[in-house]
Amino acid sequence: MEIRKLEINDKEVVKGWRYRDEFEQFNYAFKDKGWIDSYFSECYICKKEEDILGLFFLIAQKNNEFRVLINPEFLNKGYGKKILNEAIDMAFNKLKLDEISLIVRKNHPIAINLYKSVDFKVVGETKEIIDSIEVEFFKMIKKEMK
Length: 146
Known about the structure:
Elements: E1 2-5, H1 8-14, H2 35-38, E2 43-48, E3 51-59, E4 65-70, H3 79-94, E5 99-105, H4 109-117, E6 121-130, E7 133-143
Antiparallel strand pairs: 1-2, 2-3, 3-4, 5-7, 6-7
């Protein structure tokens, strides 16, 4: 898997992704001024040959907050954990961060269990307004193992 910074031409491809069914709530990330636009400079894509499998963000100004998006074509194929592990490696071994944080929707048990499987710990709760709807999240943190 190749990991590199998101480039402008990749950005347009990614902004064309659309989730369906239970994942449709995540399409706000692709809107104008959504995650892709807001955190473009802190975004890394994960490619296999010509396919963008997914991407992740390490957002320094938000306490090294981690976010991940999997290409809808590659959901439920094990790429989420691979991309998560690449992001953790980059955060701790290349960027030399001491910890990374994230927020995860309380109603997204697949993601919660994935994060717990790589030692993220729930440290609190928060609410955010997304598309005019209040959404409840868990706050999670992973500290570097020294």
